[in-house]
Amino acid sequence: MWLDFNPWWRDEKWEEMDKHIREWKNQEIKWFPKWLEQISLEPFSLNFVIGPRQVGKTTGVKLLIKNLIESGMEAERITYLSCEPFIDAHHLRRVLEKYFEMREREDILVLDEVTSIENWWKVIKGFIDLGKFENSVVIVSGSVSMKLKKHAELFPGRKGKGKKIYVLPLSFPEYLRVKNVPFKKKYEDVIRKSFEEYAAFGGFPAAVNKRTEFFPEFLDGLESDLSKIDKSYKLAMQILSQIITKAPSALSYSAIGSEIQISHITVREYLEALEELFVTKTAFKKEGRNVLFRKEKKIFMRDPGIVRAVASFFNLEIRKDFLYEWIVQEHLLRKYGEIYYYRNRYEIDCIAGDMKIEIKAGKPHRRYPKGVRVLDEEDLPGFLVELFMKE
What is the value of pTM for the model shown? Predict the structure, then answer.
């Protein structure tokens, strides 16, 4: 088992056989993920890598291993374990006990897809308390983000120098960067064409490379993740279809539930699960400093690729009016960590930090109050780049 997971221990040409590295090399558009730079490699560190399926977590970790070995680290010091084949927490414990017997010095341990094991965190926490990892760097990742995010909070004072790292599909500025498109005025036409591609495919690595099989594969992964948290895939998809059908209107849980004959409580539970899986996000209504959690919400999907996957499943139309709004909402969310909306005599689609943004698929036909920035289709690419350049 150990050599199967860690071919670099015995073969300098391991990259040629590794599925993830091989697929990465064969991509037309490929990049070294910037999130890898956030991982602490100084003992003791417990790093959590959190993100949706298909976003490239495993490939990223394999690229990190490749770079560390090329930088001179002894290959035997890096241990990778995919936890999906493990039966339960007892199996994980036995494997790690064997690992401690083999280890002789400071090293790096990667536990990939660890959330496939129930109570995995108790095993890791126990070994940390015993001092077994005091000279190690531990990287744990998982696709069932709900479990990983919540369990990450159960390690107070036990992460050492480690970090919690969120891996998301590429933003539009990141999409331009990996395509080597400069953020300059003379490349305006290329930037606009790139935005059309981004809006059609999104920022997941396979979608960036226009692999159409990504969309059903994403839905297969979503079905698997939902089953692991005892949620119905069919019901989740019905809720997502209602979000697309009624977008970009603000909705109540009851309005969604009445269409598919389920309670508002069930809708809320499913939307909470979908948020934890990085599929959707909710923008609450805000008036002044008050956030009105009980009022209608604007629910958006977090990447154009997710929108296309769901819309294709139900043969739904993807309209520019809601797609552009969702893209801007997601980018403002990443920038400011929060997103709201306002509606009274007029509507403001996005409120984040000190920004108030209204998005129109065409030219606006009315005036808005001072301080509200109105964006039409022509403005969007430049605004998203500008938002990135302010960092």
Answer: 0.93
